[in-house]
Amino acid sequence: MSKKQMLYVAKIKDGTVIDHITAGHAMNVAKILDIGEKSNAIITIAINVPSKDLGKKDMVKIEGRELNPEEVDKIALLAPHATINIIRNYEVKEKKEVRLPKIVKGIIKCANPACISNSNEPVQPLFYVESEEPLSVKCHYCSHIMEKQDILRQF
Amino acid sequence: MSKKQMLYVAKIKDGTVIDHITAGHAMNVAKILDIGEKSNAIITIAINVPSKDLGKKDMVKIEGRELNPEEVDKIALLAPHATINIIRNYEVKEKKEVRLPKIVKGIIKCANPACISNSNEPVQPLFYVESEEPLSVKCHYCSHIMEKQDILRQF
Asked: If you measure CA to CA, which chain A residue comes closest to B26?
């Protein structure tokens, strides 16, 4: 971590740092992680801070919590350049880049109520990523296109 | 500012620090201030950090922006202990405590659609604050009670 980044939000002892979030998307990541009135964890968020690679970026640091795979997959949809660092005793113990797969399974639903994936059939929602930024996915079953705002509404 | 606070989010050069926000309410304050994808300002948020006075608290720091009176009034509804510091060249130039008045005028609407304040009559919404925490306000015209979640939906 560079000195520049240290200026905005401090290191954490144990927990997760989500770095390189697309600028302006920290609040969406916070929504995915259900950060709100009921959270007890110490959380720091930095929005629109300078970034060498991205020009500007957001960061979210959460004390004492590691993310589950579903949360990581959701973050990948909204912030495909994000890196997730697991911190233990102030040191990065694990570093992973989120990756937006070409095919998205299970974590979002088709917004078309008539789609077979919304019926009682045992059909798992499945989407093709048509564009990463701006995000656009297409339903395998009914070809309905969903964009970022449609997806955010489900989180 | 104490050393302890410096550990979480850094000083800003020019802008506004909203301190002593009721713990867990920073995201609501962010919503009031319309912090999201379209913001360009550098913003840092600290949630559930230790506080001498409140046990724990939230903070929001916004570079290059001062709040308008309506924003301050809305924050008072959700975080009645908040202090707002205007920062210029790293120093606190002005400090004000938000204050939840006994009577709230104009900034929220009655959630009862049949209330006269929701008709075409020239009637300004007016509420009595029945309880600060948890927040509860009563409409002057129809006695409808609104709680925090009802009010948040309007912001």
From this structure: A36
pLDDT of residue B63: 95
**What is the pTM for the complete model shown?**
0.86
For B143, list phi and psi in degrees, rounded to 5. Answer: 65, 10
The residues with which A45 forms a beta bridge, in sequence order, are: A60, B45
| Token representation of residue B53 | 């006075």
Helix (H, G, I), strand (E, B) or coil at B101: coil
Rounded to the nearest angstrom, the minimum Cα separation between A60 and chain B is 9
Contacts of A28 in chain B (CB under 8 A): 37
Task: Tell me the residue type at B29.
Answer: V
- Structural contact between residues B58 and B29, judged by C-beta atoms closer than 8 angstroms: yes
- Name the nearest CA neighbour of B87 among B1, B14, B2: B14
Q: Any idea which residue has 């060249």 for tokens? A: B89
ipTM of the predicted structure?
0.85
Q: Between A and B, how many residue pairs show a Cβ–Cβ distance under 8 A?
A: 79
CB atoms within 10 A of CB A147: 14
